[in-house]
Amino acid sequence: MRLFNASHLEIKKYFSEDFQTNPYEAGWASECIFFIHVEDIKDVTSDPVLTARVQISHDGVHWCDEGTVSENFGTEGLHFLRVREFGNWLRLDVHVSGASFKLNIQIACKE
Amino acid sequence: MKDNIEVSRFLPLKTVLDYDVFNNGFNGWMVIMPNFCNDGFEQSPSILSKDQWPPCMLSTATFRYPGSNGSMSGQYSLKISTRPVCNPYCQIPAPGSLGHGIKRISFFRKDREFLQFETWFAYTAEQDVCDSEGELPGLHESSVRSFGFGFDIQEGGRRYFAGARYLNSVDGKLQKKWQIIWPTAKDDNEWAYGTDGDWCVKGVDPFWYGKRFPDGRHQAFIDVQDGGQDLCYNETDCKLNWQYFRLKINTKNREYLELQCQDKIMDLGHHPIYSVDPYDRIDGLLNPLAWVENDANRRSFLYLDSVVISQE
User: Fold this and answer.
1) Which end of chain A is more exposed for a tag (fewer CB within 10 A), N or C?
2) Strand pairing partners for B178?
């Protein structure tokens, strides 16, 4: 039986500025999917843009880009990024502009 | 044979309900969520927002300098952690300054009297910056405010929280003493930091609710007699020591019996456990839980290697 677990990183929270998700330890898993569910978009000032890049770390404090970058997720609905061979620590560096996004971000890991 | 050797480092009561080794997975331990059961899956209005409490993780306790600490039973432990935010002790805890893990089971036998929580645990603050002042720069010991273990229970038509916390630091001043849950707020309003009509009643969610005072008193906890104890917290936070915790309560008379940490045993003197009217649909609920709280703008990590819940 393979081990799988899903955890939240953010729940039903509005973001209108760039942010990074709380560091997550996933060393036990070889596969990871970040689900980004855009529940609502409000306060639109220009084209809504939401992009996310995967970051990795050796200590949970210092971070660098892993190379996986999303397209524009600036629409309501479910989006995802997939990553493998990440070591232990994972987070998303999220860029937001043009609107306020109500987000659920979930990390789904599998070994 | 290996199982027997591992179990010999616990002192379970006659019936073991739960034996979780987190090297094997989460075993059903998870973060506590707000109840998203209002229209549109929104949560009920409350002064408490649990939505910033980080999820439980299977952790290797990997830091910059040692690499991975691993765990006591293997390579992974259950990590309960916080975000790097903190309010002064006497204020409402900042969203995310507290982390919480819980497992949800239920009672198994009617002829029970005792219930016990055992765990091997470790704790540290994040290795993010080296403190430049104080006796032991870099130690971060006072960054962890408290951590604890216990139960959320409803049985026999009464709901109650029973648990013990190690109050480590209050606004940077080390306390290093054990306390048990015992709400002393005069009513629901005082329990909810002076809020009328909050969903939470006096006695429920004591890790978060209840007014706090500068000298470390908290309306949700009282000191254990002779409860002072220096735990093992190494010179650097990249050296973790696994330590033993045991709390025994009586669910028949609803009272505290005994607390043990490392090799120190504390008599809890049959102190009563506070209970409230039952909630709908949850009689028989037996939820072991653990939590950790920040005393600085730095993440705190509480690691559980393994847990045994037993009754007799």
Assistant:
1) N
2) B166
d(CA B181, CA B150): 9
Interchain contact, B33 vs A11, CB within 8 Å:
yes
User: DSSP letters of B251-294?
Assistant: TTTTEEEEEEETTEEEE-TTPBPPEEPPPTT-TTEEEEEEEEEE
Residue of A nearest to B129 (CA): A61
According to the 3-state scheme, what is the secondary structure of B180-205? Answer: EECCCCCCHHHHCCCCCCCCCCCCCC
Q: What pTM was computed for the model? A: 0.97
Range of the domain at A30: 4-110
Q: Which residues of B172-194 are buried (b: 16+ CB within 10 A; e: fewer)?
A: eeebebbbbbbbbbeebebbbbe
Q: What CATH number does residue A48 fall under?
A: 2.60.120.380
Q: Tens of pLDDT along B27-50? A: 999 998 888 888 888 888 888 888
Closest CA to B215 of B163, B270, B177: B177
In the three-class reduction of DSSP (H, G, I as helix; E, B as strand; rest coil), residue A79 is classed as strand
pLDDT at B259: 98
Across the interface, of A12, A24, A61, the residue whose CB is closest to B51 is A12
Residue B101 in contact with residue B56, Cβ under 8 Å?
yes
Does A25 contact B57 at a Cβ distance shorter than 8 Å? Answer: yes
Sign of CA dihedral B220, B46, B282, A11: negative
Assigned token pair, B139: 């130690």
- Smallest Cβ–Cβ distance between B83 and the set A22, A25, A60 belongs to A22
- Interface contact A59-B62, CB threshold 8 A: yes
Q: How many residues does chain A have?
A: 111
Question: Are the beta carbons of B249 and B162 closer than 8 angstroms?
Answer: yes
Q: Tell me which residue in B41, B57, B68 faces A24 most closely, judged by beta carbons.
A: B57
**Are A59 and B63 a contacting pair at CB < 8 A?**
yes
Contacts of B46 (CB under 8 A, 6+ apart): B34, B198, B199, B200
Task: Measure the CA–CA gap between B202 and B209, rounded to whole angstroms.
Answer: 8
Per-residue confidence at B258, pLDDT binned at 50, 70, 90? very high
Pick the CATH number of B2-311 from 2.60.120.200, 3.40.50.1980, 2.60.40.10, 3.40.190.150: 2.60.120.200
Hey, are the CB atoms on A25 and B58 less than 8 Å from each other? Answer: yes
SS3 B45: coil
